[in-house]
């Protein structure tokens, strides 16, 4: 196991349609975005000038960045195109025809585009294309997009911060897998990496999006100054680390494997995002707020169902570092810890404002 590939910086959701596939285990992500449908509708109807951005000879071009393997991306794109059609009708009531729409589905090269396009709706109101590549780099020609959408994707960093795996650094994240409950140096290393990645995301989108074009981002967030362990995902990351260390103590893993593994994930505050957008200077903030991703969910969290969703999103990254039987063991332990030892702590976690909704317009 010591020679196993340690590159965990290119996560991909589980492809196919098996037990732990993302296509079958992304309902939580769907719920998180569905609660924002009215806010998205309002943002487009109030802020997006489709009349000036469309022409009979050119389709309105949209991109979903971090689309995964479906089906959530199809629901989102269908919804957005329908809102844009409605906005066009309100702006151009005398027009005899609607503009055409072209949707680009983007994700990492390792994404399961086969599953994505096999399940592409046949009656979709748009033309479709796949664009493989990282959204932390250029993907499209200059001024070619009118609308960009990214949901539950931008919290993935381009890589694990180098400092957290350096034994000689004050930010070495020994015995942990995330910045939750870590010293300030670790949190700062993650924040720096996110700032760098988000800066690159904004810079490249500024080149690709036309003036007046819109960028909508939905991603995990957190109120400024709130301890990360106060939110469910933060508690889960701590328990993932403690489960791995238990396995070290029982001789199932060696300590170096755990010390060298960190999750490339970061949830920013609105204040951080405001600063990064301001530093970029190419976009105006049209709307931003922290929301509850599951306001209609009552009662205790379905821990086992939640962990299946986590596994669907993270297993590809874990599999580059740990053997499959150790991954099975890890999630069994996580379910037990969250259900038994920490059930009350999980229920008391803050959920009201842990999802960031951000609408930007290109200057």
From TrEMBL:
It comes from the Eukaryota. Gene3D superfamilies: Methyltransferase, alpha-helical capping domain (1.10.1200.270), Vaccinia Virus protein VP39 (3.40.50.150). InterPro entries: MeTrfase_7, MeTrfase_capping, SAM-dependent_MTases_sf. Keywords: Magnesium, Metal-binding, Methyltransferase, Transferase. The keyword Cell membrane does not apply. Residues 1-21 are annotated as: Disordered. GO terms for molecular function: metal ion binding; methyltransferase activity. The keyword Transferase applies. GO terms for biological process: methylation. This is S-adenosylmethionine-dependent methyltransferase. It comes from Eucalyptus globulus. The lineage of its organism: Eukaryota, Viridiplantae, Streptophyta, Embryophyta, Tracheophyta.
């Amino acid at each position: 196991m010591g020679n196993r590939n340690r590159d965990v910086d290119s996560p991909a959701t589980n492809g196919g349609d098996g037990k732990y596939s993302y296509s079958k285990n992304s309902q939580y992500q769907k719920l998180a975005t569905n609660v924002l449908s009215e806010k998205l509708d309002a943002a487009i109807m109030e802020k997006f000038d489709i009349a000036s951005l469309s022409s009979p000879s050119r389709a309105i071009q949209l991109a979903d960045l971090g689309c995964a393997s479906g089906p959530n991306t199809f629901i989102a794109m269908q919804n957005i195109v329908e809102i844009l059609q409605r906005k066009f009708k309100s702006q151009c009531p005398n027009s005899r025809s609607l503009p055409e729409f072209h949707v680009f589905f983007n994700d990492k090269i390792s994404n399961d585009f086969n599953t994505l396009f096999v399940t592409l709706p046949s009656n979709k109101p748009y033309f479709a294309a796949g664009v493989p590549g990282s959204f932390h780099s250029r993907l499209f020609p200059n001024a070619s997009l009118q609308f960009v959408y990214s949901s539950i994707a931008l919290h993935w960093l381009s890589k694990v911060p180098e400092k957290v795996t350096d034994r000689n650094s004050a930010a070495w994240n020994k015995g942990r897998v995330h910045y939750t409950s870590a010293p300030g140096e670790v949190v700062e290393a993650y924040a720096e990496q996110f700032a760098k990645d988000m800066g690159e995301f904004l810079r490249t989108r500024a080149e690709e999006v036309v003036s007046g074009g819109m960028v909508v981002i939905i991603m995990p967030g957190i109120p400024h100054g709130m301890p990360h362990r106060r939110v469910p995902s933060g508690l889960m990351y701590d328990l993932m680390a403690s489960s791995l260390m238990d396995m070290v103590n029982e001789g199932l893993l060696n300590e170096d494997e755990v010390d060298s593994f960190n999750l490339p994930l970061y949830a920013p505050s609105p204040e951080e995002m405001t600063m990064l957008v301001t530093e970029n200077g190419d976009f105006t903030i049209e709307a931003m707020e922290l929301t509850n991703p599951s306001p209609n969910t009552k009662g205790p969290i379905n821990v086992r169902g939640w962990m299946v969703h986590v596994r669907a999103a993270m297993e590809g990254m874990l599999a580059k570092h740990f053997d499959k039987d150790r991954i099975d063991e890890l999630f069994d332990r996580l379910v037990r810890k969250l259900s038994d030892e920490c059930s009350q702590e999980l229920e008391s976690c803050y959920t009201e404002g842990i999802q960031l909704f951000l609408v930007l317009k290109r200057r």
